[in-house]
Write a structure and sequence with these properties.
This protein is 45% helix and 13% strand. It is of the alpha/beta class. The protein binds 2-acetamido-2-deoxy-beta-D-glucopyranose (5 copies). The site of one 2-acetamido-2-deoxy-beta-D-glucopyranose has 3 residues, from helix 12. It is an enzyme of class 3 (hydrolase).
């Protein structure tokens, strides 16, 4: 592994040439308008899974039905107990010094079954109090409407495979806009639709545990994009004029680097990007699926004997409905990949990876040596920001997630290295390439329930003691480093306010 990594580093430096000398931290300052923040999500921190009228989400159901779905057999029933400790959390955010807090609303607190007739005032009140509490401390709320916790009742009716879920999402969103809209000016609809589809409906690792990697994932993408567009149009038709906020989708993507300078690897890297980023960005920012997906999935579907493509075709009306539904670009970015071409896979079981026809390295390999490699060569952030800026012309980008997992140690130098490197690379994109990155909400404010990994992966800059009933919070070294960055708008120790 180590050898491979050393080779890769040389290739990367070569590929970018002298224009991108890495490992040197940019010591200039971020623009004054830059917004610093931190991020969380409801199921990952709140707990209180059945309190005050909350209904069962598909993650409650998934983890209760079989504890084996998480590495440590634990679930989000209590998590960080933020449902009760929200006042303390606001004080932590204030102490950190950030001006932006990205969090998600739990659909089943607002509509316990997912249907309008189950409206739950206590759930609405909880979030109204919370956003007012943030605003009282000068913290801007950035609200995600959906971060993976679908009402279980809707899941039982097909969930993200059923087009009608998009309508239910619209109804839920309208209630949230009505109640939180007077206080919230920055919204995102759906968080990481790709990961929801790939892990929830492809590998089956996440809720609802469906394993249809060649079929359900494409229908899931369609329904989540329809849901996103439905909420976007409701906001713009009914609320935006009065409330004046912005709303967009949050897409997770990697930066994809050709493994060699061969033509085939260059094509493979671009194909990887289309199947990864373009899958969701193209319908919203350009219109329709990426052509390469239409061609390849259509072709393989025919050969497999399907009567129509496994990638559901949009109608002309649907293309128009989804196209242009963005006020900024919400980007979650954790890593870069090295991509190589592979020969055309034989026709057999339908499979996204054969549809894509690429091989990637470092995708899911989180060994310590990879960690230090990524921390030292975070070049992909600049590359991806430039790609998004040039291909989708979004006007404004928020990096809504970026972060590093450790075992939870307080002295977390590897996280500092990672954040410093990625932010430095982001600053290059802002100052040298003219990419308008408006803000950054690091993942995560605190250690939390990391889905199928349970509590084994700790992404927080603030530690949470999951062995104490108090869920005691403690600033890690990275939180102190981030405090300094947020104060000085600068990534090196030498900077002063
Ligand atoms: C969980 O895993 C254990 C050990 O592999 C197994 O014995 C048990 O049957 C599993 N439980 C369920 C509900 O699948
Ligand atoms: C989709 O949801 C609707 C209710 O909105 C339900 O009537 C229908 O049976 C569902 N379809 C599937 C395939 O589950
Ligand atoms: C479909 O795939 C086959 C086998 O890889 C290839 O020969 C053919 O050119 C492809 N056709 C299209 C339209 O992509
Ligand atoms: C509970 O945790 C908070 C920090 O999260 C800490 O300030 C407080 O002292 C703790 N209380 C107890 C009784 O441990
Ligand atoms: C930034 O780097 C330049 C060039 O290495 C150096 O001259 C300058 O003093 C540095 N500024 C800070 C604030 O570290």
């Amino acid at each position: 592994m180590k050898v491979l990594i050393l080779i890769s580093v040389c290739l990367i430096v070569e590929a970018f040439g002298a224009s991108l000398p890495k490992a040197e931290i940019n010591n200039r300052t971020f623009p004054e308008s830059f917004r610093w923040g931190a991020a969380t999500a409801a199921y990952q921190i709140e707990g209180g899974w059945n309190e005050d009228g909350k209904g069962e989400s598909m993650w409650d159901h998934f983890t209760h039905a079989n504890p084996n779905v998480t590495d440590d057999k634990l679930n989000g029933d209590v998590a960080c107990d933020s449902y009760h400790k929200w006042r303390e959390d606001i004080q932590l955010i204030k102490e950190l010094g950030v001006s932006l807090y990205r969090f998600s609303v739990s659909w089943t607190r607002i509509l316990p079954t997912g249907y309008l007739d189950s409206y739950n005032q206590a759930g609405v009140d909880y979030y109204v109090n919370f956003v007012k509490g943030l605003l009282d401390e000068g913290i801007t709320p950035m609200v995600t409407l959906y971060h993976w916790d679908l009402p279980q009742v809707l899941n039982e009716q097909g969930g993200w495979l059923n087009d009608s879920t998009a309508d239910r999402f619209g109804e839920y969103s309208r209630i949230v806009f009505e109640n939180l809209g007077p206080f919230v000016k920055l919204w995102s609809t759906v968080n990481e639709p790709k990961t929801t589809c790939m892990l929830g409906y492809g590998s089956g690792e996440n809720a609802p545990g469906i394993k249809q990697i060649g079929t359900a994932i494409y229908q899931c993408a369609r329904v989540q994009l329809l849901a996103h567009a439905t909420a976007y149009h409701i906001y713009h038709n009914e609320f935006a004029a009065e409330q004046g906020g912005q709303i967009s989708l949050v897409i997770d993507a990697t930066f994809n680097e050709p493994d060699t300078d061969s033509e085939a690897d260059a094509e493979a890297a671009e194909r990887e990007t289309q199947f990864n980023l373009g899958w969701y960005a193209n319908p919203v920012y350009v219109g329709d699926w990426p052509q390469i997906m239409i061609d390849r999935i259509g072709n393989r579907s025919t050969q497999e004997g399907f009567s129509e493509s496994r990638l559901p075709a949009w109608s002309a009306e649907e293309i128009e409905f989804v196209k242009g539904t963005h006020d900024y670009f919400g980007l979650n970015m954790y890593t870069a990949l090295r991509v190589s071409a592979v020969g055309e896979a034989e026709i057999g079981e339908p499979n996204y990876y054969n549809d894509k026809g690429t091989a990637v390295a470092f995708g899911s390999d989180w060994t310590p040596s990879v960690a230090s490699w990524l921390a030292s060569y975070p070049y992909g952030m600049r590359g991806l920001l430039n790609y998004v800026w040039n291909h989708y012309k979004p006007g404004e980008i928020y990096v809504t997630e970026n972060g590093w997992a450790t075992d939870g140690e307080i002295n977390d130098q590897s996280r500092i290295d990672y954040l410093q490197g990625y932010l430095s690379n982001m600053l290059d994109a802002i100052l040298d390439d003219g990419v308008n990155v408006a803000g950054y909400t690091t993942w995560s404010l605190m250690d939390n329930f990391e889905w199928a990994r349970g509590y084994t992966q700790k992404y927080g800059i603030i530690s949470v003691d999951f062995n104490s009933r108090n869920r005691t919070r403690t600033f890690k070294e990275s939180a102190k480093w981030y405090q300094h960055t947020v104060r000085t708008y600068c990534l090196v120790d030498e900077c002063v306010e």
